[in-house]
Amino acid sequence: MTPDHITLITAPSEEPLTLEQVKTDRGGINHSEHDDLLTQLIAAARERAENATGRALMPQVWQQLHTKATAELDLIRWPVGDLVSVTIDGEEQDIAALVASGDLELWKGDQALLISPLFYGKRVIVQYNAGYADAAAVPSPIKKWMLMQIGSMYEHRESEVVGVATNKLKYVDSLIQPYRVR
């Protein structure tokens, strides 16, 4: 069951690309005049990649609310790590005890499911860790896609472009297509 609401609880503490990598990709920018802008564009490109793929690129904590849960809850952000907390009808649960008793199972296959007969028809809030372990673990095609997005946003940072014909290169989105979860 998909959640009624999903919320980012803890944002990533670092990005999958460094300022130096972006500057090198942009033709070796060797000044710091646009560092703040480039830093913002790195975060924006990561968020775009996460929204386009359904993946969390860097470690972060997500919360899902299911107002009338079924026994199987679909965890939306991938790759799913450990559970942080599970609350059923306002009562925080002891995750270790539920797993030990067999009343809770986290299944990570072609989709991530949190399974428990205790959920059925109840209000369930789940917090979990999601994301690749570090920047080195983020697939290189996703990073390349991000660099291309940053380059485009950097070159066209005004809200209007006058007198310029633009074409979207079809192969760009094919870089992240295989990484789309949904």
Q: For the terminal residues, how far apart are their CA atoms?
A: 14 Å
Report low-confidence residues grouped into runs of 5 or more. Answer: none
DSSP summary, beta strand count:
8
Q: Which term fits the overall shape?
A: elongated
Number of helices: 5
Account of the protein in words:
The chain has 182 residues and is of the alpha+beta class. The protein folds into two domains: 9-57 and 134-179, Orthogonal Bundle (Hypothetical protein yqbg), CATH 1.10.3230; 60-130, no CATH class. The chain has five helices and eight strands; from the N terminus they run βααββββαβββαα. It has helices at residues 19-25, 35-53, 95-101, 140-155, 170-174, and strands at residues 5-10, 60-66, 72-75, 80-88, 91-92, 105-108, 112-115, 124-130. A five-stranded antiparallel beta sheet has the order 1-2-8-4-5, with no helix packed on it. β4 (80-88) and β5 (91-92) form a beta hairpin. α2 packs across α4 (140-155). The longest helix is centred in the N-terminal third of the chain and has 19 residues, at 35-53. 25% of the residues are buried. The model has no long low-confidence stretch (mean pLDDT 90).
